[in-house]
Amino acid sequence: MASSQVTVLVAGSWGTALACVLADNGHQVTVWTRGAAQAAEINESRTNRKYLKEAELPKTLRATMDMAEACRDADAVVFVAPSSAMREVAKAAMPHLKPEALIVHATKGFETGSLKRMSQVLSEELGRPEGSIVVLSGPSHAEEVVLRLPTTVVVAASELGQAEAAQDLFINDAYFRVYTNPDYIGAETAGAIKNIIGLGAGLSDGLGFGVNAKSALVTRGLAEIGRLGSAMGAHMLTFAGLAGVGDLIATCTSRHSRNYRAGELLAQGLGHEEVQERIGMVVEGVRTTQAASKLAVQYGVEMPITAQLHAVLFEGKPPLQAVEALMGRVRTHEIEETVLFNRT
């Protein structure tokens, strides 16, 4: 595999983990950060302890605060900014990008105000076709990736050549396997909505409801992902794959998941602002709950789990009352309601 110059924007937990994969693959990797102390720590100590306490970073990975320096020679740029900062970071990077640079993003969320997917935001700011921007998603906790534990993800783009270029960039035989998928809308939608269900899973466990309740929550959560995703133009089979059920399992069963841990704190009666302060990093599921509630109305789809979590997060509804509302819904049919896997 030929060595490429790759830039990762920004140096959070997932961005740092992906930078490690790329460095392990022999690429020249630069991570951009706004923080002088963080850049110095990465370059001098080979650590990023705020985000990944146990990680020792490759010696070939370097950090910079200079966006022009980071991007001007990059063959590929991987955007891993929080959804709320994606547009700002893209605007800053745009003047320095080579026209032929491969663009990948690995952020799971919607832009709150516009309700746009991240590929739409990047397309607008970078002046590139939406389908040429590669979405990297799947069950992939950063804490496991930096320990080189086996991980499998999907890269999605309607332009097959771009997806395969990203596959070549990230894949290695030791611990990071990569599949391609043309359904980038499905990959993005699933990656965003699963964070909401992760909040619910943590809340369910925090309330002591057991495996039966969480299994039902995850399954019905997948139905909500499918309903909204299908309405937005995704293929239902994507939700049975790595970006769908695979990522959903990882998020709803591991304490590595910020969304799961946030749900546990919600069960203790904390508000969403205090929850995010306790976690100390962005909890995408909180913002995504706001966006998905509006998208459900926009596309005319029913998302009862999302609606009840919205009520807990933003309307002061006690978690137990939200559970009672879900359990007391009007009886209905499972298959006729979800219409799983019937798209052609």
Automatic annotation (TrEMBL):
Main location: cytoplasm
Binding of NAD(+), residues: A142, R258
Substrates-to-products reaction catalysed: sn-glycerol 3-phosphate + NADP(+) = dihydroxyacetone phosphate + NADPH + H(+); sn-glycerol 3-phosphate + NAD(+) = dihydroxyacetone phosphate + NADH + H(+)
Domain Glycerol-3-phosphate dehydrogenase NAD-dependent N-terminal, chain residue ranges per copy: 5-159
Subcellular localization(s) per the UniProt record: Cytoplasm
Annotated NADPH binding sites: S13, W14, R34, Y51, K108, A142, R258, V282, E284
GO biological process, one term: phospholipid biosynthetic process
Pathway named in the protein's UniProt entry: Membrane lipid metabolism; glycerophospholipid metabolism
Sequence positions that bind substrate: K108, R258, N259
Binding annotation for sn-glycerol 3-phosphate: K108, G138, S140, K194, D247, S257, R258, N259
UniProt-recorded Gene Ontology molecular function terms: glycerol-3-phosphate dehydrogenase [NAD(P)+] activity; NAD binding
A GO CC annotation given for this chain: cytosol
EC number: 1.1.1.94
Domain of life of the source: Bacteria
Signal peptide (residue range): 1-19
Enzyme active site: K194 (proton acceptor)
UniProt cross-references to InterPro entries, sorted A to Z: 6-PGluconate_DH-like_C_sf, 6PGD_dom2, G3P_DH_NAD-dep, G3P_DH_NAD-dep_C, G3P_DH_NAD-dep_N, NAD(P)-bd_dom_sf
Function according to Swiss-Prot or TrEMBL: Catalyzes the reduction of the glycolytic intermediate dihydroxyacetone phosphate (DHAP) to sn-glycerol 3-phosphate (G3P), the key precursor for phospholipid synthesis.
HAMAP family attached to this UniProt entry: NAD_Glyc3P_dehydrog (MF_00394)
Identification of the protein by name: Glycerol-3-phosphate dehydrogenase [NAD(P)+]
Origin species: Cohnella rhizosphaerae
Biological classification of the source: Bacteria, Bacillati, Bacillota, Bacilli, Bacillales
